[in-house]
Design a protein that fits this description.
Distance between the termini: 47 Å
Order of helices and strands: HEEEEEEEEE
Number of helices: 1
Number of strands: 9
Strand order of the largest sheet: 1-2-3-9-4-7
Shape: globular
Length: about 150
Amino acid sequence: MRITHRDMVVALGAVALTCSAGVFAQTQTRKIIGPTVWDWTSMKVTPTDVGEVRSLGNGPTATLDDLELHVTTLKPGQTSHAPHKHPNEELVIIREGTVEVLNDGVWKRLGPGSVIFNASNALHGLRNVGTTNTTYHVINWTTPATPKS
């Protein structure tokens, strides 16, 4: 089979189009989260099977690859999910209620104002052990140093 000049032009055009599509896709970044406030009375509440969640933001910042914030409310006796781990780090701030958290292999009881740091790939969990709803703020972030898995 003989490759013609027309074949070469079509092939080079396809390569150029593929490369430009890749460059275009890489330049389509999510909007950077800048100065922001979230008013508790204006947060959208989404019911869940175990309580409710208020999703605040999810995207890059000037210094983080990703910042995700939400507020979870759990009914008494409930947990949002089984103990798990993930590569990103997170802070959890207890707003109200009584919880037990799995942290560094030990379950610990905490109340309002307590702060939990879940390190990268460390097994952690949280359950409402009180008789009223518990609400907590979750702040997750990813940086270039965050492991891929």
